[in-house]
Design a protein that fits this description.
heterodimer; A: 571 residues; alpha/beta; Rossmann fold; 3 domains; six-stranded parallel beta sheet; B: alpha+beta; Alpha-Beta Plaits; 2 domains; five-stranded antiparallel beta sheet; binds thiamine diphosphate
Chain lengths: 571, 174
Amino acid sequence: MEQNHPTGGERLIQCLEREGVEYIFGLSGGAAMPIFDALLDSKIKLILVRHEQGATHMADGYARSTGRPGVVLVTSGPGATNTVTGLFTALMDSAPIIVITGQTISPMLGKDAFQEADVTGITYPVVKHSYLVKDSNDIPRVMREAFQIATSGRPGPVLIDVPKDVGQGPCSAPFTDEVDLPGYVVASRGKAENIEEAARFLNQAKRPVLYVGHGAVISGASKAITTLAEKLRAPVVTTLLGKGAVDETHPLHLGMMGMHGTAYANKAVADCDLIMSIGGRWDDRITGRLSDFCTNAVKIHIDIDESEFGKIVQPDLAIHGDARLVIEDLIPQVEMADTADWLARCDRWRKKYPLKYRKQGGLRAQHVLDRLDAITAGEAIITTDVGQHQMWAAQFLRVRSNRHWLSSGGAGTMGFGWPSAIGAQFGNPDKKVWTVVGDGGFQMTSCELATAQIHKLPAKCLIINNNFLGMIRQWQEMFYDNRLSGSDLEGNPDFVKLAQAYGVKAWRIRRPADIDRILEQAHAYDAGPCVVVAEVVKEDNVFPMIPAGASVAEMLVEKPKKKLDKPEGST
Amino acid sequence: MSAVTPLEPAVVQPTHTISLFVNNKPGVLVRVSLVFSRRAFNIESLVVSPAAEGRFSRMTITCSGDPDILGQVVKQLAKLVDVVHATDHTGDQAYETEIALLKLECPLDERTHILQVAEHYKARVVDFGAESLILQIYGSSEKLDAFTDLLRPFGVAELVRSGKLLMARGKRMT
Ligand SMILES: Cc1ncc(C[n+]2csc(CCOP(=O)(O)OP(=O)(O)O)c2C)c(N)n1
């Protein structure tokens, strides 16, 4: 009888097929072999990575850009621990990924078997939920639950640890569509009375601001928020991750707020009489010093995660629900507001404090990114790494549509950019995908050049090479008397040659005059991955800047003349 | 009971009582305790027991920490996939009880006072040995504290407490 049953590994792969999975990003090892073996007979494509961290960011990039969960498959022990950074990155930014880890055989659990790590134990704080599967027959249920949990409510990573004998043994359990999760309740519509109250607040506001976060992106609230903003004639600001939820070229859009946000977005937030968070979580990068943040404004907080209410900011009104549904319910209840004066004021700020950079002299990252914005014209999916280039990209690349901007926000994970672009390109074969990375972060996952090259994947990588851990150097210059401690990346490879060593097409931009020609060539290049190395001035700083833990009043729009105190804020 | 001397230095964070109704699965306790430790809450006592329906368990947790953060902790507990509901009972009209076992090492002829205190508190002698005796007492945690403090001068060799048990009165859910 038993021969007729699939193995646990085969059942697991069949479950993934039923969930509509197209790709698995992974790297094998002893404990995962039953599952990798089953993969050979499946139509799911294995994308063999060079490092498991890369697999997690690929799955993450796939998930953020498509809205569908990304799947990772790795082996036990070191394979599994290499996914921890990716799990954390996905958790902090609510990205739905499923990480399947091989594990030693169940009789050896807890006995220090070869490559046995307590993976569920190690990962508790960085997952939305996790499973250690003890019985092959649990596989269909666990897989269904995992997808349900990862993708619904506030999405997040789910880890499934599968001992080798569970993957090898027979599984006679049928597929299941039902989930029975009594402790898992997902909010949808907001309470009617809360929405009425929000409308009352909005209708009384003279200087409203809509503060749009990642929750808006995840819930697909673009159309609803744009309609609401137009009806209210309220300016829109976004967080780093909210970029793209509302077209950034829309006249009501003031760009990104927060530490390196535009001065006009931050001034609007500082001066508003009502601020409504739509899927934002009042991160410390956004609020700065809390006691000075929007002190006189009514605060409305829309979130699908109830535990966000009052965590940082005590809102005057909390609406628990899905951002899109709440906004859709709100639209008919708000009135056309007279905010002409307010908008005029925002526009004066916009004119007075534009984002600026020098086009003469050496090559500037901002110039390259400004041109990348023009050349991609909002059509491309942009991912970034972490550092100065990320902030400049956020400032100069105006994202026009939802899920076209992927960046590691909450975790700030260097190494995210390039693999997330690979994942996004797999998920969006018809779109152009660019990543903007620094020379430091790129080297954390540059081995994935091989992964892209093998698949002739046309993802494009722009390396902003300043030969420094630039953001660190900026802080040391500004707050530590320019005492540079471990921020000089002396010993960098020649990135053009590095790319070429993988057979990847590469260009170098040395002068402003090269920018357009090379970016255009790269943008048009579709035969495989390509790399553009912009050799930018070594020492440049990101402005505006609100030092960590300070308020908008302390915003620096250019390099300060005097020495600054060390920031008191988080990092 | 008024003459009780506190055991701890005076500056302590207030104690809260939280009850959780959770899936009876491995790992649940770790997930729950991580929420407390991450917010620097110290778990003072923890009782885990099967609920009326076997697939669920009850947890009654007393903890100390900043009351302003408590609401957050409860919400973060409720957010766990394995937590069906989480309730803060601090200041509630809930029925609470606890059991303690105390071992006192003292010769037979020095037990008169101990037995007087025990009788006053309605504690039971559950083991009467030649060199030691074990007392069992139940009631509110405060009563157990006071009882223990009174007996301390006689030499409490061992103390085992069950941790607080709690049930909401009437129609309210625990
Ligand atoms: C994995 C990881 N390690 C360290 C940091 C701290 N960090 C933040 S920005 C930064 C510098 C990044 O340098 P680079 O990639 O060259 O980009 P740049 O700032 O120069 O644009 C560092 C080290 C981080 N965010 N992530």
